[in-house]
Design a protein that fits this description.
By secondary structure, the chain is of the alpha+beta class. 60% of the residues lie in helices and 8% in strands. It has two domains: 213 residues, Hypothetical protein af1432; 166 residues, 2-Layer Sandwich (Alpha-Beta Plaits).
Length: 503
């Protein structure tokens, strides 16, 4: 346990209070005050945002970026705030301010770039894990962004001394031990002090204080869930940042991270693979939004590639183990993939459902993981074929398939049963299931056809959300039947809708 003396405590406060550090701007402070109210008036939030022209412009730029993918262009703060939500607005304002202050002196530019990439990587990992676990993504992103802000503070305060004794001897984000050896305290102490000064609330600074600890109890309290997400984000960032590590060390880091995700979030290895695949691209997207140059370099790309390769090797090992145990692998091998794909859409087909996916769903039920089953039917598909021909009919099917792939996650399964019927199978909580299902049915785009015309598309969807309980023996077929019945009830009522049931 590290003991902070009164003298060190005084120095920590001095570093945290340095005027060169990013201080919480008045606009962000006012938004935080509004967000802490029981009932938030959106017009007040809009009024505060409008008071800063630079922030207003960046908010609009973000709302119209590929990160959110709103179909209609957002042209006013009054439109942007409800769409993004007050929590995301607060996060973005603080992020813009940190990015501007992270440019730093030109002599330290490369170090500031490393720091900002690390801030963004941890924030994106926290955001992606929050997506998987039905937590507030904006809060997790902001906490991930701030958890190592003390590194920026220490570089700003100590300059060359910090570089020589810390950054040249350790790699971000794992620099706390080097800091303590030289200064007697670490950036974690500084980060906690800064967040307390910014009055962001106990759960933020408590989570930041412990984000490098990786021994959180499994039955972590709900109030500590943010802390566990930050710990997972820190581990993920260590994997991505291991530029100088050997492949053996990278393997160790990956196993530690995968085990942590499984233990605390019940996220399996294929989810870890999708997180690794997505983090680099999303960091790039955010760097564009924040107008901050990210020095990517070949080393980071190599680490990402090596991590994905190791995860694929682990997947092969697990498949071999499953076959040796007499059980079917969860997903097809590359050689099998073609036989399990629908030739028109490229989606999984009924054979994959019967031979592979049923076993996957059974394992979810055995582990009592929440499952969502969506049964989808294209409305008036026969009329599309009759009026426009089978070529347009095929285009409509591929259009729906592409929409389903865009609106679901990399870890979800989208299956074409045949004709105009589809299944979406997801392992997730009910609230996130509702968001995805509603978006699928409400926002499906029109299909462009010959002559510059647009053909409106609509879907009938039956959705069953199932939380398995002990001694229940339901299976995939039962869930599909339940979803099918709900879809049929939507059809009878005219289609273009969603019927959802929790069982």
């Amino acid at each position: 346990m590290v003991v902070i003396t009164d003298e060190l405590s005084s120095e920590i406060k001095q570093v945290a209070g340095n005027k060169r550090l990013p201080t919480l701007p008045a606009v962000a402070q006012k938004l935080i005050e509004l967000a802490q109210q029981d009932e938030i008036e959106l017009h007040e939030v809009c009024q505060v945002v409008r008071s800063d022209p630079a922030v207003s412009g960046k908010i609009l730029k973000t709302a119209n970026s590929a990160l959110f993918g709103f179909r209609a262009r957002v042209e006013s703060i009054e439109e942007a705030v409800p769409k993004l939500g007050t929590s995301m607005i607060r996060t973005l304002i603080l992020s813009f301010h940190l990015a501007a202050n992270s440019q730093g002196e030109t002599e330290y530019q490369s170090y500031y770039q490393q720091m900002w990439r690390n801030f963004l990587t941890q924030a994106v990992f926290a955001e992606l894990i929050a997506e998987q676990t039905d937590c507030d993504q904006a809060s997790c992103f902001m906490a991930g962004l701030l958890q190592d802000i003390g590194v920026l503070a220490m570089l700003s305060e100590f300059g060359d001394e910090y570089i020589e004794n810390v950054l040249e001897r350790a790699s971000l984000p794992d620099v706390a031990d080097a800091e303590r050896r030289h200064f007697g305290f670490s950036h974690i102490d500084i980060s906690e002090q800064i967040v307390q000064q910014w009055n962001l609330g106990k759960r933020y600074w408590s989570a930041i204080r412990h984000h490098h600890d990786h021994m959180t109890p499994v039955d972590v309290a709900e109030t500590d869930f943010l802390k566990t997400i930050l710990q997972a984000a820190s581990l993920g960032a260590s994997v991505v940042a291991s530029r100088r590590a050997s492949k053996r060390r990278l393997d160790e880091l990956l196993h530690t991270w995968i085990d942590f995700l499984e233990l605390h979030f019940q996220l399996e290895q294929d989810v870890a693979h999708s997180l690794i695949s997505e983090v680099n691209e999303r960091v790039r997207e955010y760097s564009v939004v924040f107008d901050f140059k990210i020095d990517d370099g070949i080393q980071t790309n190599r680490v990402i590639a090596d991590a994905k390769e190791l995860l694929q090797e682990l997947a092969i090992q697990n498949q071999m183990k499953a076959m040796n145990n007499g059980t079917a692998p969860n997903d097809p091998s590359p050689e099998q993939d073609e036989m399990f794909r629908d030739c028109l859409t490229g989606l999984y087909n009924r054979r994959f459902l019967n031979q592979c996916l049923n076993q996957k769903i059974k394992s979810w039920i055995d582990k009592r993981k929440p499952i969502a089953m969506l049964f989808l039917d294209v409305d008036k598909f026969k009329s599309i074929n009759d009026e426009h021909g089978h070529r347009i009919g095929d285009n409509a099917i591929t259009h729906v398939a592409q929409w389903l792939m865009e609106t679901t996650r990399a870890t979800d399964y989208v299956v074409r049963l045949g004709g105009d019927e589809f299944l979406v199978i997801m392992q997730l909580k009910q609230s996130l299931c509702e968001k995805i299902a509603n978006r699928i049915v409400e926002e499906i785009p029109v299909l462009p056809i010959d002559g510059g015309q647009d053909l409106p598309m609509s879907l009938s969807i039956g959705c069953v959300h199932y939380q398995p309980k002990r001694r229940e023996n339901h299976d995939a077929s039962w869930l599909i039947d339940q979803a099918d019945q709900l879809m049929y009830s939507v059809k009878k009522n005219g289609g273009a809708g969603l019927s959802m049931q929790t069982v």
